[in-house]
Amino acid sequence: MKKRKWKTIGFSLLGIVVLAVAVLGYEYYQLQPKNHFKSVPVVSSGKASGTTPANETVEVKEPVFNLLLIGSDERKGEKIGHSDSMMLVHVDINKHKYNAMSIPRDTRVFLDGYGYTKLTSVQYIMQATKGSQQGVEAAVHAVSELTGVPINYYVETNYGGFQAMVDAIGGIDMEVPYQVTLTHPWFRENKNKVISPGTHFFDGKMVSEVVHERYSLADGEYGRQKLQEEALKGIAKKALSPTNITKLPSLVKSIPDFVTATNMTTSDMLSLGLAAKDFNPDTQLSYLQVPGEWKRLYDDILKANNDQLVIDQKKIKDLVSVNF
Q1: How far apart are the C-alpha atoms of 38 and 33, rounded to whole Å?
Q2: Residue 233: which residues within 8 A CB-CB, separation 6 or more?
Q3: How many whole angstroms separate alpha carbon 258 and alpha carbon 168?
Q4: 277-297 tens-digit pLDDT
Q5: Phi, psi angles (nearest 5°) of residue 104
Q6: Residue 82: which of 236, 268, 302 has the closest Cα?
Q7: Which residues contact 28 (CB under 8 A, 6 or more apart)?
Q8: For residue 118, which of 83, 153, 88, 73 has the smallest C-alpha distance?
Q9: Is residue 151 within 8 Å of residue 46, measured between CB atoms?
Q10: What is the pTM of this model?
């Protein structure tokens, strides 16, 4: 009787182990990018008319989607901020290809109910009047309509979150293509500090300083976008290195410490991490900048003239048709 009891317990434990392995195996199977990204949300259709409702999920034949990265200037303790940097990324998982296009913060856009203003102001005014989430989604819609590109996912961080993310992976090596003088640093002690061209090891604090600078650069906003590209390369190389790839699940779990807004789930991020585990930014990342002309124009939100970048619609259409 006693022997039968232990045998029963043994079979029960074996059953639990088999079930646990089956569940874990299924979850791992589901996380494989080719299986996970069979359907994706659509936050904005890329058309002013909004033919695809926000946040509708659509089936896709291939694991291909568009992701908008947003850097907000929101400071600690604040609930609203400007879209200080924006990068639209086209992800083709099967081809292991990523096309990234920076959208200048001062790009002239039209906001329903307000008129013409800078892209950076869209998020701020909508957060101030309708709430945090509506502000982020308004910025996503503005970029989608400007480029004509449907946007499936978005991830927003602020400089505090960006700093924490870099520190979480132990700092990065970053290529600085030209001299950078920190004219408007986040931290007083770095005022007028000069960063020479070359490869530097930076902690999160210094990376957040470097990617914020634009006034000392010959190409201004376009120069800053290049610095942001180099920072993202450094982060990708470090986070997806063999020593860190095993830490990916714990890093993803700490995402709330870095991210202020996103429509990506934890499993979305883990699956994307698996897809990019052998990512080489030097060969798999194509970086683009949006051409335009600076003009002094009236801002309907600020009720004053300011410098705005008027995008060349033909050129952006050509860039999108080839890369998105």
Answers
A1: 9
A2: 174, 175, 281, 282, 285
A3: 10
A4: 777 888 888 999 988 899 999
A5: -60, 140
A6: 302
A7: none
A8: 83
A9: yes
A10: 0.82
